[in-house]
């Protein structure tokens, strides 16, 4: 069996770095992509960066990849969050699909978030699903302006989930033999999570109360990395369109 080649976005830190390391340790060729400190440098929040990702990955891979792990994302109360988390992720998946088709066992996965089940702004989600990036950015800006900036992040991930569930079973993906899934982590212990909310006890307690994780808060990054790696492995030949909650039991707690 030949060595598999994987593309990981957001590979410079956190979940992306851990996943790239996990795949490389198992013997795969990993093309690490990020806006900084990576083999392929591309800003996925803007059209030129998205085009650069596709062309650079084509060049360094020789025209065939076996898996895409789309991790790059931010949690800022800003329109940038929809540009990167929704439109950047779609561009990653769609832009690299022609290279995946060249594989005999192609797979793709995106990173969502448990927070998508907690809250969302209908205008942002609707504009994303209409694939209208400027309207989605404007709706996000309006939410920020109204003092509801925290809704932008879960909205970007809910839109991603909804797009993915229908795209996965359509002709471009399932029809082309490419399983496409999402992993929705609960709160896990990355440097960014620590810096943005875990370090402040009051904020951390509030998040832990909103997203109860009976298996532990925060969870380990390695648990997300190994699940992502499995979804793009040759072994995952029959699961597609799923949102896999790797959240220490938060989704089960909130939805039962
Ligand atoms: N850490 C958590 O608790 C948690 C929970 C749920 C979901 N997530 C999701 O997991 C993903 C990774 O989060 P993380 O905690 O590892 O954070 P992180 O900040 O360590 O990783 C994000 C990566 O994306 C890169 N990036 C940022 N802007 C970019 C751009 N414009 N173009 C390309 N790359 C860019 C960053 O450089 C970074 O390497 C995100 O999509 C996040 O929403 C994280």
From TrEMBL:
Keywords: Oxidoreductase
Classification via PROSITE patterns: ADH_SHORT (PS00061)
Domain of life where this protein originates: Bacteria
Cited InterPro entries: NAD(P)-bd_dom_sf, Sc_DH/Rdtase_CS, SDR_fam
Alphabetized GO MF terms: oxidoreductase activity
Family statement drawn from the similarity comment of this UniProt entry: Belongs to the short-chain dehydrogenases/reductases (SDR) family.
Protein name: NAD(P)-dependent dehydrogenase (Short-subunit alcohol dehydrogenase family)
Top-level taxonomy: Bacteria, Bacillati, Actinomycetota, Actinomycetes, Streptosporangiales
């Amino acid at each position: 069996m030949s060595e598999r080649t994987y593309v990981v976005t957001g590979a410079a830190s956190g979940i992306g770095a851990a996943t790239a390391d996990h795949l490389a340790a198992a013997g795969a060729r990993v093309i690490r992509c990020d806006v900084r400190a990576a083999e392929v440098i591309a800003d996925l929040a803007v059209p030129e960066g998205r085009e650069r990702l596709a062309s650079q990955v084509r060049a360094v891979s020789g025209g065939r990849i076996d898996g895409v792990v789309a991790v790059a994302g931010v949690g800022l109360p800003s329109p940038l969050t929809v540009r990167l988390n929704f439109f950047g992720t779609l561009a990653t998946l769609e832009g690299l699909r022609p290279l995946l088709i060249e594989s005999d066992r192609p797979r793709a996965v995106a990173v969502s978030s448990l927070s998508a089940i907690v809250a969302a702004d209908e205008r942002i989600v609707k504009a994303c699903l209409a694939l209208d990036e400027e309207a989605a950015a404007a709706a996000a800006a309006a939410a920020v302006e109204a003092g509801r900036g925290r809704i932008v992040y879960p909205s970007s991930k809910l839109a991603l989930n909804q797009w993915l569930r229908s795209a996965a079973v359509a002709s471009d993906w399932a029809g082309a033999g490419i399983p496409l899934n999402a992993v929705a982590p609960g709160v896990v212990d990355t440097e960014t999570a620590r810096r943005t909310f875990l370090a402040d006890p009051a904020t951390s307690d509030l998040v832990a109360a909103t997203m109860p994780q009976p298996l532990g808060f925060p969870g380990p990054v390695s648990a997300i990395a190994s699940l992502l790696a499995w979804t793009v492995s040759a072994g995952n030949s029959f699961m597609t369109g799923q949102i896999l909650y790797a959240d220490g039991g938060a989704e089960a707690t909130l939805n039962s």
